[in-house]
Here is the input.
Amino acid sequence: MATTRLIPMHKIKNQSIAYTVHKRINYAINPAKTLCGELVTTYGCDPATAANEMLLTKRAYADFTGREIPDSDVLLYQIRQSFKPGEVTPEQAHEIGCEFVRRFLAGRYETVIGTHLDKAHPHNHIV
Here is the structure.
């Protein structure tokens, strides 16, 4: 059974919001950790432009509400799902992450799912 953790992501100290969003997305879709991108799926955005699309959504929200994003706000949420070594195949772990997104986020948010294989246990980074 997977352990699941919700992690609020704030702006990286002394960096811009754009830098932070790009850094977090690039980490999740890192080709060296995701079988050259084979274990990357997105909803509501494209993997190549996901960070920019999320930033545009944040800008549209700020324009619509008149509320700018303070430095202390949560920029993104990361959901991390970890599996015991040998419990699931990398493909199964990735499908579990995709199913989680389909059921609980239901297309309401731009989402990036990267299944990492750089540790003994497969784990999903869902941003």
Remarks:
- The CA atoms of residues 35 and 117 lie 8 Å apart.
- The chain has three helices and five strands.
- Helices lie at 17-28, 50-65, 90-104.
- The two ends are 21 Å apart (CA to CA).
